[in-house]
């Protein structure tokens, strides 16, 4: 089976023009089929605040009312997605921008209201791999933003870490998938303020203790859950760390195994 690399980049890379530029230059050189998934939560928060739209997050998830949905559509599917695609084209990587609505690639359902109403937030129901397979086999590189649709004309906000893991799981039927979560730290750290304290291996048996001891908290909670979900569903390799882990073999990072 051919190897497919799915790489997710988070807010801190996207917010730093120089870092994003350097990352995209390196990403363009990766030889195997690849998909880029980007977040952009921090930029959406900044814009919402400038527009005096209240920002509400619960357990790292954005409560997405109609006004917020308009903002994130402009930020994720517009500004960030199109800038990334244009920069990749400048590096001779033939990229094509996607939300889950494009090519009907990711269908989700509006999260049911329980004690919390997340508004227009979508939980992934189905990934249609056919259009992606076609593009990947023809040397095109899909670039996904954090938006899906419900097949009734409604766009929905879906966490970018989840988009990456769901794409990875579905495409594992066709490819040997490696999933990389890139962010500003060297990996999952024993001490979040010490970049040398990387936990090199995490298994389902060690994870609960890390949560109970508050070593893993906030944004790392959904990320690690997505990692476990992926390794439990045929994804061959899942890593968290700086994007250097993709290009420099000696760079320390965290690997999540079954
Ligand atoms: N043990 C840990 N190691 C590293 N980061 C952690 C840990 N626990 C919590 N975090 C927090 O998780 C954040 C990453 O989550 P998030 O901001 O959602 O990532 P992204 O940039 O990919 O969107 C880090 O910036 C850090 O503050
Ligand atoms: C439902 C939900 O919370 N969606 C996220 C999507 C963006 C994202 O995941 O961005 P980062 O990876 O940069 O955090 C949000 O709106 O913040």
Automatic annotation (TrEMBL):
<feature type="binding site">
    <location>
        <position position="157"/>
    </location>
    <ligand>
        <name>substrate</name>
    </ligand>
</feature>
<dbReference type="InterPro" id="IPR001048">
    <property type="entry name" value="Asp/Glu/Uridylate_kinase"/>
</dbReference>
<dbReference type="Pfam" id="PF00696">
    <property type="entry name" value="AA_kinase"/>
</dbReference>
<feature type="binding site">
    <location>
        <begin position="40"/>
        <end position="41"/>
    </location>
    <ligand>
        <name>substrate</name>
    </ligand>
</feature>
<keyword id="KW-0028">Amino-acid biosynthesis</keyword>
<keyword id="KW-0963">Cytoplasm</keyword>
<feature type="site" description="Transition state stabilizer">
    <location>
        <position position="8"/>
    </location>
</feature>
<comment type="similarity">
    <text>Belongs to the acetylglutamate kinase family. ArgB subfamily.</text>
</comment>
<dbReference type="InterPro" id="IPR037528">
    <property type="entry name" value="ArgB"/>
</dbReference>
<dbReference type="InterPro" id="IPR004662">
    <property type="entry name" value="AcgluKinase_fam"/>
</dbReference>
<feature type="site" description="Transition state stabilizer">
    <location>
        <position position="223"/>
    </location>
</feature>
<keyword id="KW-0808">Transferase</keyword>
<dbReference type="GO" id="GO:0003991">
    <property type="term" value="F:acetylglutamate kinase activity"/>
</dbReference>
<feature type="binding site">
    <location>
        <position position="62"/>
    </location>
    <ligand>
        <name>substrate</name>
    </ligand>
</feature>
<keyword id="KW-0067">ATP-binding</keyword>
<keyword id="KW-0547">Nucleotide-binding</keyword>
<comment type="function">
    <text>Catalyzes the ATP-dependent phosphorylation of N-acetyl-L-glutamate.</text>
</comment>
<protein>
    <recommendedName>
        <fullName>Acetylglutamate kinase</fullName>
        <ecNumber>2.7.2.8</ecNumber>
    </recommendedName>
</protein>
<dbReference type="InterPro" id="IPR036393">
    <property type="entry name" value="AceGlu_kinase-like_sf"/>
</dbReference>
<keyword id="KW-0418">Kinase</keyword>
<comment type="pathway">
    <text>Amino-acid biosynthesis; L-arginine biosynthesis; N(2)-acetyl-L-ornithine from L-glutamate: step 2/4.</text>
</comment>
<feature type="domain" description="Aspartate/glutamate/uridylate kinase">
    <location>
        <begin position="5"/>
        <end position="240"/>
    </location>
</feature>
<keyword id="KW-0055">Arginine biosynthesis</keyword>
């Amino acid at each position: 089976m051919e190897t497919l690399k799915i790489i997710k980049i988070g807010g801190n890379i996207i917010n730093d023009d120089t870092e994003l530029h350097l990352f995209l230059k390196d990403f363009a050189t990766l030889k195997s089929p690849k998909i880029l998934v980007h977040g952009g939560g921090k930029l959406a928060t900044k814009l919402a605040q400038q527009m005096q739209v209240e920002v509400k997050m619960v357990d790292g998830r954005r409560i997405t009312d109609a006004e917020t949905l308009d903002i994130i559509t402009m930020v994720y599917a517009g500004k960030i997605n199109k800038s990334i695609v244009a920069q990749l084209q400048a590096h001779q990587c033939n990229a094509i921008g996607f939300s889950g609505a494009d090519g009907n690639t990711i269908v989700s359902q509006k999260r049911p209201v329980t004690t919390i109403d997340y508004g227009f937030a979508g939980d992934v129901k189905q990934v249609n791999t056919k259009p992606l397979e076609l593009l990947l086999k023809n040397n095109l590189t899909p670039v996904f933003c954090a938006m899906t649709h419900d097949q009734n004309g409604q766009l929905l906000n879906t966490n970018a870490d989840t988009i990456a893991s769901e794409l990875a799981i579905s495409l594992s039927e066709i490819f040997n998938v490696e999933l990389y979560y890139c962010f500003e730290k060297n990996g999952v750290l024993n001490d979040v303020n010490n970049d040398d304290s990387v936990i090199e291996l995490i298994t389902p048996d060690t994870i609960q203790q890390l949560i109970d001891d508050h070593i893993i908290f906030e944004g790392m909670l959904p990320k690690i859950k997505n990692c476990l979900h992926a390794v439990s569903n045929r994804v061959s390799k899942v890593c968290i760390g700086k994007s250097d882990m993709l290009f420099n073999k000696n760079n320390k990072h965290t690997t999540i195994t079954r």
